[in-house]
Design goal:
By secondary structure, this protein is α/β, with parallel strands linked by helices. It folds into 2 domains: 24-53 and 314-458, Aspartate Aminotransferase, domain 1, CATH 3.90.1150; 61-310, Type I PLP-dependent aspartate aminotransferase-like (Major domain) (Aspartate Aminotransferase, domain 2). The protein is built from 16 helices and 16 strands. The protein has helices spanning 24-33, 61-67, 78-91, 102-113, 127-135, 163-173, 196-208, 220-230, 239-248, 274-288, 298-310, 314-333, 351-354, 364-376, 385-388, 417-432; strands spanning 48-49, 95-99, 119-122, 139-142, 180-183, 213-216, 252-256, 267-271, 346-350, 378-379, 381-383, 390-391, 398-399, 405-409, 440-444, 455-458. A 7-stranded mixed β-sheet has the order 2-8-7-6-5-3-4, sandwiched between helices. The chain has a 3-stranded antiparallel β-sheet with strand order 9-14-11. Helix 1 runs antiparallel to helix 14 (364-376) and helix 4 runs parallel beside helix 5. It is globular, with a radius of gyration of 22 Å. 50% of the residues are buried. It binds pyridoxal-5'-phosphate. Pyridoxal-5'-phosphate (PLP) is lined by residues 54, 101-103, 126, 128-129, 183, 187, 216, 218, 256, 258-259, 267.
């Protein structure tokens, strides 16, 4: 009876935010005016917004009431003390450095520990992490297991690091590796989890080389839940105990609270040892603000503290991961190619398989994204050539990423199963007439991170929107 795919949401709705499906003609106009880039749409013109799961969570009644108890003192805030206690309890790290969001924590960590020419090793660094490594003129090294790159695989932990390659890396370049960073879950290949066994192995290896281990903990609770489900040894453990166990193998973490903090903005660094804390606050103060607020209001820290408890609740996690799987399974049943198994925060469609007639240079993923919006007001995001293609600095040739993906990220506690059913119908309709969808060409692009501001137009006679 407790099939988590069909179990109702474990919450009642106390406050609503109306959403509207504007008429199709208006959607066609809106996307044209947006230069066929969904980042340029006005949110009120979107019906089901699956652009990102970052900062889009719904807060609980307890979090909203926690806001009222925020202590806005510049120094020594009670809300900092509370958050510090919570992080110590949930993560096991007693030394807390709040930041305004996850990338600010990365900025501090990289500034304090990374030097030019270093190699920062991980399973697969998130974009902003990679950006901060590059800003230090260091090299990001991704050692994800092979299965992690496969679209369909039955590996239960596609976020694991390849321990053999890690061993080689440490033997060859150990003296240039300031730390190893495990991203849990691994965002860039679809929110795939890292096993406790893998964490333990990595920890033993880095210890042998006297190298610290940090976590990018943005989706730590989703990762802990997958461990409970898929790693038999931990089936009877609580999610809280699993999370503590994960972090016990590391020296600290960076956190984007916009994900598993269940808040709309915020982040932090947390450390096991005082040494790292002392080093971090040297940079926190100039970058983020004083130690006891670091870019957050007291009320933000108060709501985050509550969110960190709620996010490890088993009923919440069952529904959360169940909803993602529900969407993925229903798309798969309609023969829509999705990354398998689904991860913790969204469903990824292989747009190249759906639209084989559109070459990567004409952005098949973007074509699908545009059509999903026109068809049903659903906003997803392209993670293919529009986001990641780049020129090879030596040959000047365009290098396309291995996959042309469309991500449907699911905000936490925001949409119901009816919304997911709507998305399934919209995606199915669009994919069935995939052969008629046009490719796109760029009419404007910024020099870096172009997908956020790019302007495009449909190519040729294929009629996307008229
Ligand atoms: C979102 C994210 C970040 C960056 O956090 P922001 O709060 O967006 O700055 C870092 N790592 C991972 C894995 C993320 O998903």
């Amino acid at each position: 009876m407790t099939d988590e795919r069909t179990l109702p949401e474990p919450f009642k709705i106390k406050m609503v935010e109306p959403v509207r499906l504007i008429p199709r003609k208006r959607r066609e106009e809106a996307i044209r005016e947006a230069g066929y880039n969904v980042f340029n749409l006005r949110s009120q013109d979107v019906f089901v917004d699956l652009l990102t799961d970052s900062g889009t969570s719904a807060m609980s009644d307890r979090q909203w009431s926690a806001l009222m108890r925020g202590d806005e003192s510049y120094a020594g805030s009670r809300s900092y003390q509370l958050l510090s206690k919570t992080v110590s309890c949930v993560f096991g790290y007693p030394h807390l450095v709040p930041t305004h969001q996850g990338r600010a924590a990365e900025n501090i960590l990289m500034t304090m520990l990374v030097e030019e020419g270093d190699r920062v090793v991980g399973n697969m660094h998130f974009d902003t992490t990679e950006g901060h490594i590059l800003l230090q003129k260091a090299k990001p090294v991704n050692l994800l297991i092979e299965e992690g790159y496969e679209v369909v695989s039955d590996h239960p932990f596609k976020g694991n690091i390849d321990v053999q390659r890690l061993q080689d890396e440490l033997e060859r370049h150990g003296n240039r590796v300031p730390f190893v960073l495990l991203t849990v879950t691994c965002n860039n290949n679809g929110g795939q989890p890292v096993s406790l066994q893998n964490i333990k192995q990595v920890s033993e290896m880095v210890r042998a080389h006297d190298i610290p281990l940090f976590f990018d903990a943005a989706r730590f609770a989703e990762n802990a839940y997958f461990i409970k489900q898929r790693e038999p040894e931990y089936a009877d453990w609580t999610v809280q105990d699993i999370a503590r166990k994960m972090f016990s193998y590391g020296d600290g973490c960076t956190m984007s609270a916009k994900k598993d903090g269940l808040v709309n903005i915020g982040g932090f660094l947390a450390f096991a040892d005082r040494e790292y804390f002392d080093e971090a606050i040297k940079w926190q103060i100039p970058f983020e603000g004083f130690i006891t607020y670091g870019g957050q209001a007291g009320r933000d820290m108060q709501a985050l503290s509550q969110g960190l408890y709620e996010v490890t609740d088993i009923d919440y996690l069952r529904q959360r991961t169940g909803q993602v799987r529900y969407l993925a399974e229903n798309l798969r049943r309609r023969e829509i190619p999705v990354i398998w198994p689904p991860g913790g925060h969204g469903v990824y469609i292989d747009a190249q398989q759906v639209l084989p007639h559109i070459p990567p240079s004409q952005f098949p993923g973007q074509s699908l994204v545009v059509e999903l919006y026109i068809e049903g007001g659903v906003r997803g995001v392209e993670l293919g050539s529009l986001a990641f293609a780049h020129e090879d600095p030596d040959t000047q040739e365009v290098v396309h990423p291995p996959l042309q993906l469309v991500r449907l990220a699911i905000p936490r506690r925001v949409y119901t199963r009816r919304h997911m059913d709507w998305v399934v119908d919209v995606v199915t309709k669009v994919c069935r007439r995939g052969g008629q969808l046009p490719g796109y060409s760029l009419t404007y692009e910024a020099p870096v991170l172009r997908h956020f501001t790019a302007q495009l137009e449909p190519i040729g006679a294929g009629k996307a929107s008229e």
